[in-house]
Amino acid sequence: LMETAISRAAMVRVYAPDPELALVKSRAFYDACDGITILSGSGLVINGHVLTSTTLLGQVLQTSGAEALHSCQLSPGAQIQVQLEGDPSSQWRNANLVQHLPLPNAAATVKALVGSGSWEYVGRPEGGHMFGGMSDWDLFVCISVLELDTSGTCNPRSKELNCRHPATICRGETCVLVSCPFGLVAPPVFSGSTTQGVVSNLLPLGKATPAQILLTDTRAMPGSEGAGLFDSSGNLLGLMGPALRRSSDQSVPGLSIAMMAHPVLVALRTLVGPTRQLTMGRASWGLSGPSGLEKSFSSGDMAIQRGTKAVVTVRVGPRWGSGVVVSPSGYVLTNGHVLKSDKDESLQPASVFVNGSWCNSDFIAISTGWMDLALLKLNSSIISEWPFLSVEPSTEVERGQRVLAIGSGLFCPSSICSTQSVTTGLISKVVRVGGVKVMLQSSALVHQGASGGALVDMATGCFLGLITSNARHVSGQIIPQINFSMPVSCLTSLATFLNQAGVDNLQTCRHQMEQAWSMSNKEFTEVWNLEPPPWDVHLDDVDAVNLSSKSKL
Fold it and tell me: What pLDDT, on a 0 to 100 scale, did the predictor assign at position 333?
């Protein structure tokens, strides 16, 4: 895997006269000296050519009108250079811009996903529009093709590269990114940096149109745009887009968008003219159809796929959260705060998105004690034979255990994104009070909307905990990498209810479960409120006097 990924990695830099520093606006990093500005990004080497993000080059194109997409002329004095990862000479080689690849289907998907005004990206052009009449999000997905100057000893990377078809890619599978974040700041340090994550989601949904983009929790920083994203066997999955950030507070969510590689290479093969013909040999392209390069699923993979289906979206008015189908009879477990907001204590009707449509649900129970739980009921015929996650503890939870977080976080559910996203991390800590597990802390990325989702074991897909909350800064900004889940071992009363509840004794079993959920526990509540323990620092009299004096000063 690493040999293939590294052999295809490159760092791309562009420099141009820029005495007014017009090129650096909205950039996370740059270098400028004597009226020259240098920007850098990442690239993927294919057959003596390099693919990179057009966001890196758009501002140095000579033509800015409707002909810009068909013109590859740079502004006077601008140059593009490429440094191949693994080249012992570390030589910067000149490159010519030969083609732009607009991806309208990918652009439409991204626009539908991010909505209007909530999101932007690093390097986004000011004013919302760029060359060729393209919007900023059209530019986000556009790929530029560079032709390397292969004079001298440059190896155009002839090692075989296979490209996965979108239909063969699944949520939760491992992916690796080799890129150059902040590359020009210190190329020996940052070029060829490797990060690993999982495929979080594939968009858009539906069998009629193959997925055009994928979401991943692989760390992709500014400068990673244009890099190749590979699976665990070294097959190409996608090309990384620029880093996303919220328009309101400039926070970076940790999830990144990559354009599917297959449509990119198909567009490249279609658009390259006879005078710039690329070699389309099998060893160079390896374009597989839906039946090619199928992933071989282990039992753990299949369990994870079932888990992603068992987690559903719960909508209450304009708000949404997640839920977990916990029985074949249609019971859905979620958080109490998904149904009741802080501003409105009344219960609102909840709809659940399952099996491709929104379904009404019946309210069963909600906790009034320390546990933030609620139970809904769907008509069993709606989810007949639908996957569910058992609340019977089936595996021990340990610190350092690899987990997946599954939920409807970050992006508002829509026709484009109506399935759950998957992120990966570790169990950071199992919090116990008096020997009882009361909280699981994980490092998997969790965002607003994932409350009520599932934390599952990455190896087996077993349900470990109900995602419940995040840590926040004092400003209110969420910290996605610090989050807390209710252990499945705390759900014994729910397990009893699901096993015993029948037509005749439903109300009795429900009452017993509500009693268990309503029990108060001061120590458990303090843990979930992140309250510090009692002050246990003792000062002698002299130190206390000194401290008092300093506080007055």
Answer: 97
